Amino acid sequence: MSTPTPPHLVLIDGSGFIFRAFHALPPMSSPDGVPVNAVFGFCNMLTRLMREHVGTHLAVVFDTSRQTFRSDIYPQYKAHRPDPPEDLIPQFSLIREATAAFGVPGVELAGYEADDLIAAYARTVAEAGGQCTIVSSDKDLMQLLGPNVDMLDPIKQKPIGPTEVEAKFGVGPDKVAEVQALMGDPTDNVPGVPGIGPKTASALINEFGTLEAVLEAAPTMKASKRRDSLIEHAEAARVSLKLVTLDAHAPLPLPVDELGLRDPDLAVLGDWLDRMGFRSVRHRFGLGESASPRPARQNVSAAREPTPAPDAAPYNEYDTVTDAGVLATWVAEARTAGVCALDTETDGLDPLQARMVGFSLATAPGRACYVPLLHEGTLDQPTGEQLDTATAVEILAPLLTDPGVLKVFHNAKFDVLILARAGAADIAPIDDTMLISYAQSAGLHGQGMDELAKLHLGHTPISYDEVTGTGRNRVPFHQVPVKRATEYAAEDADVTLRLWLALRPTLRTNQALALYEQLERPLIGVLADMEKAGIKVDAPQLRRLSDDFAARMTEMEGQICALAGRPFNVGSPKQLGEILFDEMGLPGGKRGKAGAWSTDSSVLQDLADQGIELPERILAWRQLAKLKSTYTDALVQEMDPSTARVHTSFQMAITTTGRLSSNDPNLQNIPIRTEEGARIRHCFIAPPGKVLISADYSQIELRLLASVADVPTLLEAFELGQDIHARTASEVFGTPIEGMDPLTRRRAKAINFGIIYGISAFGLAKQLGISPGEARAYIDAYFARYPGIRDYMEGRRAEAKEHGYVLTPFGRRCYVPGINEKNAARRNYAERQAINAPLQGGAADIIKRAMVRLPSALADANLPASMLLQVHDELLFEVEADAAKETAALVKTVMETAATLKAPLVVETGIGANWAEAH
Predict the structure, then answer these.
(1) Which domain holds residue 807?
(2) Catalytic activity, per the record (predicted)?
(3) Residue 218 gets which letter from DSSP?
(4) What is the pLDDT of residue 453?
C-alpha cells in the first residue's frame, strides 16, 4: 500500500493582498462602472500563481470582520483604523466572486483573523510532513516561517525566508512576536512599550531570549527611561504579545483534503472575466478573445506585458497626417494596440498660454506620425493642407478618453495642459516616462527625453536646435517646414514609446513601482489643476512695494559708496572686487579664471563675519535687488491681466530628493523670516468672499530624524509637544528647561538643524561665532547624548558608498554622485547630501502623499476649496470664507495622517485674507 504524498498547500492572504493591489494600481472600473483595480490585480496574481507556483492544494483566506477574540482581550485593538476607501468596499465581494470563478476555495471564519487561519493551516500541514507556502508580504505572518513553511511576496514575486525576516526584525521567525510585543504597532493599535523601537526591541530579545525574561530583568537594568518604561508598561507588553501572536490552533473552516487544486470551469471563468472586462486575463489564462464589450476603464499600464526589443525598429519614415480620415485610421490603430505615445508641439513654453502647433502619435516602435495644425509656410516652402485644431481634437477624443488604452507622454503635465487648452477632455489613463525614470534614478542623471534616449536606447534624437536654429537665427516651431517638423516630432513620440517599453518593467525590479503609482503619477493631475488655478496677486500693492524697494536701494547705494570712499556701480562685481581687494586691501580675495576678483555671496559673507561693514551692506543691497527683480517687478509682468492671477509651473523631476520646484515665477524662495518676505506675501491675496489657508508641517525633518534614528528622548519631547530645541539643550548641556538662557537654546537649535545637513565643527563654529574646538565639543556632546543619530549618519554614508544612493524612509532612491570621490571637499559634500537626502526626501514623500489625497478628501466633504501652492513643507489653499475652519481642520487631519512615524506629525494651519496673514 503506497504512502500518501504530503500536501503542498498554497495559502493566499486575500485580505492583505486586496489592500496592496488597491493602492498599487491606478483606478479602473468594470463595464458596469464598479471599481475593480484591486480585483484586476488579484486575478493577475492568481493566474500567475496557478501557472508558476503550483502546489497540490490551494486556498484564499479572508477576514470576516474587525471583531475577533483580540477585541475581547483589548477593546482598542484596531479601533483607530480608518474605514476602507469607498472605491475598495465593493471589491471585497468581487474578489470572493473571482476566487469562486477560478475554482479556488475561499476560507474565512467569524471571530478569527485571516492570519490565524493561515497559522492553523500552516501548522496542520507542517505537522503532517507537508509544505505550506503563504502568498503574502504581511510582517505579522513572518512568525510562522520554518522548515516546512515559507512565504512569497505576491507583488514582487520574491520568496521571504528566515534571512529576510532577520534583516527586518533583527531576530529569527520564532522571536518575531516577542519583538512586535515590545515595539507595538500603531497601525493595529497594539500598545507595546513606549520608546522601544525595532533595534532596541531586537537587542533586548536577543540578549534575554523572551519578552517575559526582558520584563523580569527590567528592575535590575541600569537606571534609564527605557528601564522605567519597561517596568511601567510591562502589562501592556504582555497584552501586546497576546495580540500579535497568531492562533495556530484556530478551527479549520475546511479540512486540508478539501483544498485540493482543481481546474476551473472555463465557461464560468470566461463569463465572469467578460463581465469584469478583463480581456488581458482571458488571454493569459488561454481563453482567447471574447465577444464582450470593451471595459469602461482598463489599466493597460498594469495589465499589458511590454513588447520586446524597443530599439529594433529604425527611427525614420514617419508619416505626415493632414487628412481627417487618415487620422481616424491612426486613432483606431492606437486603440487596437492598447498603448500609444503622444507628444505636442507648441509655440511657447507656458502651457496655459501656448497654442498647439501640432501633435505626434506612435503606436509601435518605428511606427509614428505627425499631425500639423498651425504651421505657417513660405513662398519657397508652402505648408500645404492642415487639419484645424478643433477637428483634430474631435477625432483624437475617443483615444484620449478610452480607459482601455494607455496614453504615454514624456513630461505629461505639460502635454495634458496643452491638449486641455486645445479643447481635449480629461485624458486617462496616462503614463509619464520622465517620472517613470525619475522615480528610480533621481540624482543619477537628467530626465530629459534626449538624455534618456541616449542612455537607454543608444539613440541620439534630432535636437530642437537642429530644427529651429539657435540664437538670432532661431525660428518659432510654427515656422518650421512640415516635413522637417514631422521628422522631429514623430521621432519624439516614437522615442517616448520605446522608453516606456524599456523603463516601465524596471519600476518593479528597482522597487520603485509603488512610489511611481502612488505618488508621482497621481500628482500629474493634482499639479496641473494647481497650475491652472493660480493665485491672485495685488498688482497695485506690488508696484508700490517695488517703488519702495527701489528708493531703499538708492539710499543704500549712497551709503555703500560713502563706505567705499568713491562712487562706483554697486551692481558691478568687477568694480566691487577692485574696491575690496585692490583699494581696501581686504584679506581673502580670490581671482577667477578671467583674472577678476570673486565677489560672490560666500566671499562677501566671510568678510561680513569679520565685522567689515561694506560687504555686509552689499549683501543687504543684493538681497533687496533680488526681491525686486524676482518678485515685485516680475509678478506684475507674469500676472494674467484677465484674472489678476499668477500661475507658477511645478517641476516634478529636477531635485535629487523628490522635492518639487517651481518657476515662472519661482514662489518657493520668498524669504520666510524677513520683513521684506512678509511684505511680498501680503501681496498674494484671496478674492472677495474667500480666504487663504496655510497648512505647514512643523519641524518635519527633525521628526523624521528622531524616528529613523530612534531617539527616545526626542520622540518623547515630540509626543509631549515640548520645545524640541530647549529639550535638546537640556539633554546635551545639562541645563534645566525652565529659565533657559536663549543663547543656549539657539546653540541647540543650530546643532539640531545643522545635524540634518551634516554640519561640520567649522560650519557650526562659523554659525555660532565660537571656536571650532568649542563647536566640536558641542557636536561630541550631542552624539554622546544621542548615539542613534550618529549611527544614522554613519549608516547613510555607508549606504551611499556601497550603493551610490540612499533611500528615504518610504523607499525613494536618492543618488549621491561624488560619494567615492578622491577629492576630499567633493566627497565631504556628497556625504552631507547622503545624510540629508533621506530626511528632505522623506519630507517630500509625505507632503506628496498628502497632496494626492487632499483633492478627493475635499470633494468628498463637499468643501469649496482649491489647493494653490506647495512651498517645501507648506500647502496653500483658497476657500469660501464660511468654510475656512472646516477646511483647515480637514486639511490638518489629512496631512497629519499622510504617514505614520514614531514621532507624531504636526501641521500648523492659519487663515487670512492674504498669504502673510495665513502663514
Answers:
(1) 655-711+803-919
(2) DNA(n) + a 2'-deoxyribonucleoside 5'-triphosphate = DNA(n+1) + diphosphate
(3) G
(4) 94
